Each structure stands twice: as C-alpha cells, then as structure tokens.
Amino acid sequence: xxxxxxxxxxxxxxxxxxxxxxxxxxxxxxxxxxxxxxxxxxxxxxxxxxxxxxxxxxxxxxxxxxxxxxxxxxxxxxxxxxxxxxxxxxxxxxxxxxxxxxxxxxxxxxxxxxxxxxxxxxxxxxxxxxxxxxxxxxxxxxxxxxxxxxxxxxxxxxxxxxxxxxxx
Length: 168
Prior knowledge:
Elements: E1 10-15, E2 18-24, H1 30-42, E3 52-54, E4 58-61, E5 101-104, E6 117-120, E7 133-139, H2 141-145, E8 161-164
Antiparallel strand pairs: 1-2, 1-8, 2-7, 3-4, 4-6, 5-6, 5-7
Domain PPIase cyclophilin-type: 18-147
Function: PPIases accelerate the folding of proteins. It catalyzes the cis-trans isomerization of proline imidic peptide bonds in oligopeptides.
GO biological process, one term: protein folding
C-alpha cells in the first residue's frame, strides 16, 4: 500500500476492483476535505454508485440521497441529490484537474457542491478554476480505470466502503 503521510487527510475507497487511496488537500480546499471526511465517517458514502462515468473524462459518484444501492436507491435520480448538510462555497485554486485528481461536482452555481465528487480519468484542464480540486489518487488508479462506463451505467459500480485512513 502507498505510504500514507497524513492518515487524518487520507481516504480509502474500497471498490469491487480494489482499493483507491486518496490524499486530501486540506491546505487548498479545507471545507471540501472536511465534508468528505464527515460523510466517510458517518458511512454515508458506503454503497453509493458511480452514476456518471464518461470514458476518457471522469467517474462521478457521491449522491448519498439517491445513489446508495443499499437504501432508497433510485438510479434514474442518482446525481440529482446530495447530503442533508449545507452546500459548500467554491474553493477554486491553481491546482490543475490532472488524471487522478478529485473534483467537487456541483450544479450551475459555483457554490453548490455538497457530497458528489468525480475522479478524473485524464488531464481535464478545461475544468481548471471552475471546479474545486481537493484530493488526488495516490494508489489504485487501475481500479478507477475499471469502473463501468455509462450515464448512468446499466449496472453501476459502487463504493463498497469509504474510510478515513486514521480510522482503520
């Protein structure tokens, strides 16, 4: 496993195809990092599907309201919900949307990110300074690359579990 420098700011996502280790960037986007840890620690992300997966672009997940295959699951509505927590203000930075970075998914309003996020399959620099980058995959990108494609996929992959490394 990758060397984890800061367990409190590292997320481990278990997928069907393996573990994905994400290093959060609290110096860049503290509110987004805190939100991801809060939702991970509450178990809200466990069982949530990747509802929008575009080859060569990104894999989106995190709809804890409609995207959880274990409770109140509605695939056709997955991607339209968030958490019960308030939306987050944008935390744009100069960090580019490179392959493996984690971006905050949002609606048209830049301050509408909540629980959804995406993992970039490739360098998507057209997103720079328009979507908050708050983490990067440091191990397990091969598991991300195997996520089933579709908008939504017919049989979507899910995050089996999402944990803060300090808690495992």
